[in-house]
Amino acid sequence: MSTTSRESSSAGRYGKVGQVLNELDDRLGVAKGGRTFLDKIFPDHWSFMLGEIALYSFMVLMLTGVFLTLYYVPSQTVVTYNGSYLPLFGQKMSEAYASTVNLSFAVRGGLLMRQMHHWAADIFAGAIVVHMARIFFTGAFRKPRELNWTIGTTLLILAIANGFLGYSLPDDLVSGTGIRIMYSIILSVPVVGTYVAFFLFGGNFPGTDILARFFILHVLVIPLIILGLVGAHLFLLVRQKHTQFPGPGRTENNVVGSPMFPVFMAKTTGFLMFVTGVIALLGAFAQINPIWQFGPYFASRISYAVQPDWYMGFLDGALRIFPAWEFTGFGHTIPLEVTIPAVIFPGILFTAIFAWPAIERRYTGDNALHNLLDRPHNRPKRTAAGVAVTMLLTMLFIASSTDVIANYFKISLNTVLWAMRVLVIVIPLLSYPLAYRIAKEMQGVSGIGKRKVTNVVVRTDEGEYVATPAPTYVDDAHHELDPVPVPTFIDGALDEVAGEPDTLETTPGVRRVER
Amino acid sequence: MSDHDQHTPVSLRGVSADDPHMQPAARRPGVVEGWIGVLFLVGIILLVLFAVAFVMNLAPWTLGATLGGGAVSLGAGLIAWGKYLMPRGPFVEERHPLANSEADRDAFAAAIVERGGGIIQRRKFLGGLLGTGMGVFGVVSLFPLVRSLGPMPKGTLFHTDWTTGSYLVDITGRRVNVTDLAVGSITTVYPEGFQNTDNGQAVDQTVLIRISNENFTTMKGRETWAPQGYVAYSKLCTHLGCPVGLYEQQLQLLVCPCHQSMFNVANGALPNFGPAPRPLPQLPLMVDSQGYLQSQSDYKEPVGPGFWERS
Question: Any bridge partners for residue A372, and if so which?
């Protein structure tokens, strides 16, 4: 082979960096794929950064989480608190709670890290949901990307599950109540519920094992699965390339935007810093989960206005407004007032989300590959269905604070409860035809989503009015440009860069990006 | 150029430096560059201040403000750099079909179906055994994983630690006397000896309410259960097991703060609002010769939320 005789250690024309790259290429063969990767095109549309928020808040979660594990003790052993927070001094509490209070007050930077961790978890789940909505409403889940839709939905479920587990770890009065509710929800599953609950908790509630088990699930098992799935998610994204909105020069067979290096890399690294910074600012200024105010958990104590983190809100709301329809008979009890809202409903919801690409494919008979995105108004039924489900979940979320609403607005709790029972059904039913109608109307409007072309009206000296179109807005002119393949970006090096002759294609000097 | 005649230039010679694709998005790049410089400087200063605040152990908000402000500044500057000063494109990348040729697909399928399937079909018996073995392995490997996790439920959920003659004690272990509570007041009690146990706290917890001065009947058949107006109900909500910790004295309602179920204390704790399906089980009480409250027996039904085995 000719390659064996190549003198790879020679400096070449790119100096030290080039030498390192050559050494790498000798061993790993990274040059060609590396160049292709650096030339990878990322669409410029803002909605493509929603997933990045999720990714970067997950990175913040991992970093702050490692910090927290150094100080948190997953133990339910009862100890007497003698730390620096005086209101709790001398009180009995679990070691887990005491260690969480300690890492908040006695460890330098501990409170900031804990608050950042909690905020990052809420933002992680939120960014996934918003990202998912973008994917749904623009049809980005269609063939060939159904698998990535499935992975993404799994990631949402894991984010919610791990959020709940992490929320439970401090063992404060509010989170302990949350665990009690979760235990009862598991109990409500017919036939196997009791066994699942006993095996999961190591016996009847509360048992002595649960925090240690939640801990290892929260810091190892689930994050590991999330990490693996995030890797798969990104691998599929690179392999299948981005979708893009239709526009000038954009076809099913190309991707238009900015290259990985340096433009996207600059923006996304900046965005990583930005997301991290925003989470740090939230951690600094927006108090979240002040467990020292709730007090330690004891199974016979309870607090008022107990609410879970936002991503569990729809379940809590469903539990509040569902009627007391317990089924008893044949020597068995099925607590349907728990099973339906907290087990069957989320089961149906997530099954429908998982199955949506297949459902839509069957319904439309569309088995083609899609790389250009839909405008939501061009798919009125899908859009309306998405809006209806969003409204249903929003109503359930609002229903999770019936008591707070009743107190705040000084109305009877009974009124609020019945209002929510009605709204949960009526609002989605109304929003479907409404969203459908709006989408249909939008289809009839020409030039929708585009900037209106302004006219400059000039009055001449004679008093005559003359209207002339204003010059095209700079950014619009930019969007009308024909996209070109990625150049090297090095003006001075144009003459020096060399490559294989067979990469030369129609335009002289253009390096076509090969897959 | 003549030095490299044997090479073909890779770079985009068709796009010159003044090509609109290579122009920055900023109309006045110099101004933007200045602002980015300011952002970077502010970022560096704030991050240094973070170090200072950390070393001096200042209040947590100063740590977050300097760290967050610094990161946001650096991030915003870098985003602006990428967005306004780098070549704006648009650039394009061709998308090639991922699907392979018919021949490649057939070859792949043939390898699995003919090579693999053929081998198994020739030894159907072995294949069946292997499948069975793998299945058995999968099932038995779950045994230690699942079965060791916890005890079988058995009768656990049907009983509490209350027995005939259990004294009612408060959280400190002090017995409750009939003279202790004024009419309308409420306390949480446990069977004596269990007030500090997990099970006592989580399962046996009972609310004791004095709703009258005389013997009280909450329901037919419970005539002797509430001596001198002391009624006792399980504190576990029948909805999801939260402690029913709020007592609305005027209406004689026990309220669960979790999902707002309400139980009518004077009427056998029948739920009259919210998602709870069943009344709170009532604990039959009696008074010993010195006036201390005792339970007549355990609860007559399982306490807490519903489950499959409950009849």
Answer: A244
Q: Which two tokens stand for residue A141?
A: 């889940």
B195 and chain A: CB distance < 8 Å anywhere? no
Q: For every residue of chain B, which 3-state class applies, written as one string?
A: CHHHCCCEECCCCCCCCCCHHHCECCCCHHHHHHHHHHHHHHHHHHHHHHHHHHHCCCCHHHHHHHHHHHHHHHHHHHHHHHHHHCECCCEEEECCCCCCCHHHHHHHHHHHHHHHHHHHHHCHHHHHHHHHHHHHHHHHHHHHHHHCCCCCCCCHHHCCCCCCCCEEECCCCCECECCCCCCCCEEEEEECCCCCCHHHHHHHCEEEEECCCCCECCCCCCCCCEHHHEEEEECECCCCCCECCEEECCCCEEECCCCCCEEEHHHCCEEEECCCCCCCCEECEEECCCCEEEECCCCCCCCCCCCCCCC
Nearest CA in chain B to A264: B82
Element containing residue A271 per DSSP (H, E): helix A265-285
Q: Is A328 helix (H, G, I), strand (E, B) or coil?
A: strand
Q: Given this model, what pLDDT does residue A10 score? A: 53
A46-298: CATH homologous superfamily?
Answer: Cytochrome Bc1 Complex; Chain C (1.20.810.10)
Torsion of the alpha carbons at B40, A270, A263 and A151, rounded to the nearest 10: 180
- How far apart are alpha carbons A386 and A428 in whole angstroms? 10
Query: Residue B120: is its pLDDT beyond 90?
Result: no
A283, closest residue in chain B (CA to CA) = B64
Given CB atoms, is B187 within the 8 Å cutoff of chain A?
no
d(CA B77, CA B182): 68
Q: What is the pLDDT of residues B202-261, one digit of tens each?
A: 899 999 999 888 888 888 888 889 888 899 999 999 999 999 988 988 888 999 988 989
- Mutation test of the interface with chain A: which of B55, B95, B169, choosing the one with the most A Cβ atoms within 10 A? B95
What's the whole-number average pLDDT of chain B? Answer: 87
Q: Rounded to a whole number, what is the distance in Å from the CA of B226 to chain A's nearest CA?
A: 22
* Closest-CA residue of chain B to A256: B92
Domain ranges for chain A, please list them: 2-31, 46-298, 455-503
Quick check: B137 contacting A, CB < 8 Å? no
User: How many inter-chain contacts (A to B, CB under 8 Å) are there?
Assistant: 384
H/E element, A89 = none
B242-301 residues touching A, CB cutoff 8 A = 242-246, 257-261, 271, 273-278
pLDDT number for residue A474: 66
Q: Does the CB of B102 have a partner CB in chain A at under 8 Å?
A: no
pTM over 0.80: yes
Interface check for B82 against chain A (CB to CB < 8 A): the answer is yes
Could you say which of A207, A475, A485 has the minimum Cβ distance to residue B91?
A485
Looking at this predicted complex, what is its ipTM? 0.89
